[in-house]
Amino acid sequence: MSSKIFGYARVSTARQKEDRQVEALLGYGVDGRNIIIDKESGKSMDRQGYQTLKRSLLRSGDVLVVKELDRLSRRKEDIRSELEELKQAGVRVKILDIPTTLTDFPDGQEWVIEMVNNILIEVMGSIAQEERNKIRQRQREGIASARSNGVAFGRPQIVKPENWSEVIGRVENGEITSVQAMEILGMKKTSYYKLRKLDMEQSNI
Questions:
Q1: Where does 5-105+118-131 sit in CATH, by number?
Q2: Which of the residues are catalytic?
Q3: Residue 1: enclosing H or E segment and its boundaries?
Q4: What is the pLDDT of residues 55-90, one digit of tens each?
Q5: Among the listed residues 24, 8, 116, the one whose alpha carbon sits nearest the alpha carbon of residue 63
Q6: Is the pTM of this model over 0.70?
Q7: Domain extents for the chain?
Q8: How far apart are CA 68 and CA 55, in angstroms?
Q9: Helices (H), the chain
């Protein structure tokens, strides 16, 4: 069975575009049908596309091409373990942004390129992890700043209609049913009963 070349591209969210990575993979000669794309965070290796690629598609002798090292992961430990696992499976990984991984050396000199690659991958892995830490720090700082300026996070609170007390009084007096009250108030069932529950909790304080 002849070896195959696969490409892998990843962006962190569905809104981001993978075009730049795919263009680079196609430019290197990867068949578009063999490019697997994930739109998930790099903090976990449990990504559907990548796991399908690794468990079902890649075979010994195949080549996996990625545009940048952090497309595999942003955690240095994961990068190291994934590269080792792929190596043990007989899969060669080529990283377009690390040109030495693309070079074929004569038999007997593979250890030279492997040593160089290990050093580069260690450095690049550290940079990827540091960038992830910076992103997380900026997110925490942004949330803290927004909260200090009165920005609320989470689901918005349900606002009571102006005629809430009047309508609920009629429900409690048996004049109308809760279903009728929802129609008068223009509320959904879940919102209506959440406010009723809140009323009861407040009356018991």
A1: 3.40.50.1390
A2: 12
A3: none
A4: 999 999 999 999 988 888 878 788 888 888 888 898
A5: 8
A6: no
A7: 5-105+118-131, 164-203
A8: 21
A9: 19-28, 48-52, 76-88, 110-148, 164-172, 178-185, 189-203
